[in-house]
Amino acid sequence: DAGITQSPRHKVTETGTPVTLRCHQTENHRYMYWYRQDPGHGLRLIHYSYGVKDTDKGEVSDGYSVSRSKTEDFLLTLESATSSQTSVYFCAISGGGQDGYTFGSGTRLTVV
Amino acid sequence: SQKIEQNSEALNIQEGKTATLTCNYTNYSPAYLQWYRQDPGRGPVFLLLIRENEKEKRKERLKVTFDTTLKQSLFHITASQPADSATYLCALLMDTGRRALTFGSGTRLQVQP
C-alpha cells in the first residue's frame, strides 16, 4: 500500500525464538498501530504509537513489545514466540483525529 | 463490556441489488464511526467516516447511516457488482483513553453475477 510497507511478508519461526516485524511509512504520520487478525476475532490492537518513543498497549499486548525510535519506523517484537502468536499482523498509520487508517499488506507469521 | 457486533454470516446477493450490512455497538457513544473494505490477503482499506451528528453519508454507490440512539450503523452498497465482493469492517474509537480504533470482525459480502 502506498506510503506504508511491512517486512517480512511471510515468516516461519520456531517456538521460543525472538521475532521482529517492521513497519515503515513515508507519510510522516504521527500515529502507528500494530494489529493482529485471526479467524473469529477480527482485528485486535496489540500496541500503538502516538509519537517517537511514545507507545501504549492495546488489548492483546502480552508477549509483545514495540519500539519507535524514528517517525517512519515502528517495530513489533515477539520476545519468545509461541504457537498462539501465529497470525496475520497488520501495521496501520494515521494522521490523527478522525483520519481513516492506511494499512500495510500484512505479515503472515507462523510459529511452529 | 464494550463491543462491536457485525453479522458473522456471509451476505449473498444478486448483482444489481442493494447490499445492507449492519454494525451494532454497546455501552459507548462514539464521536464517529468508520467503514473499511478488506479483500483476501490484503489489508483493510478505508471507505467512509460518519460523525455522530451526521445521520447519513454518501460516496458514489455507498451510503452509511448512523443511529446513535439504536447504537447502530448501516452500510449500503447500491447497484452491487461482483467486484464489491469483500469483507466489510466497521470501526469505532471505543476507549478515549486508548487512541486507537476497535474493529468489528467484519461481514463477508458475496455478489453473485
Structure description:
The complex is a heterodimer of chains A (112) and B (113). Chain A is mainly β and 112 residues long. Chain A has strands at residues 4-7, 10-13, 19-25, 31-38, 42-51, 54-57, 64-70, 73-78, 87-94, 102-103, 107-111. The model of chain B has no long low-confidence stretch (mean pLDDT 92). In chain B, the strands form two sheets. In chain B, strands 2, 4, 5, 9, 10 and 11 form a six-stranded mixed sheet that branches. In chain B, strands 1-3-8-7-6 form a five-stranded antiparallel sheet, with no helix packed on it. With 113 residues, chain B is mostly beta strands. Chain A binds chain B through residues 1, 31, 33, 35, 40-45, 48, 50, 56, 58-59, 90, 92, 98, 100-106, and chain B through 8, 31-32, 34, 36, 41-47, 49, 51, 89, 91, 98-106.
Secondary-structure-based class of chain A equals: mainly beta
Proportion in helices of chain A? under 10%
End-to-end gap of chain A: 29 Å
* Outline type of chain B: globular
Find the biggest chain interface. Answer: A-B, 25 and 25 residues
CA radius of gyration of chain B is 14 Å
Mean of pLDDT of chain A: 95
Quaternary state of this entry equals heterodimer
Short description:
By secondary structure, chain A is mainly beta.
Write the layout of secondary structure elements.
The complex is a heterodimer of chains A (112) and B (113).
Chain A: E1 4-7, E2 10-13, E3 19-25, E4 31-38, E5 42-51, E6 54-57, E7 64-70, E8 73-78, E9 87-94, E10 102-103, E11 107-111
Parallel strand pairs in A: 2-11
Antiparallel strand pairs in A: 1-3, 3-8, 4-5, 4-9, 5-6, 7-8, 9-10, 9-11
Chain B: E1 4-6, E2 11-14, E3 19-25, E4 32-38, E5 45-51, E6 56-59, E7 62-67, E8 72-77, E9 86-92, E10 102-103, E11 107-112
Parallel strand pairs in B: 2-11
Antiparallel strand pairs in B: 1-3, 3-8, 4-5, 4-9, 6-7, 7-8, 9-10, 9-11
Keywords for this entry:
heterodimer; A: 112 residues; mainly beta; seven-stranded mixed β-sheet; 0% helix; globular; B: 113 residues; six-stranded mixed β-sheet; five-stranded antiparallel β-sheet; 52% strand
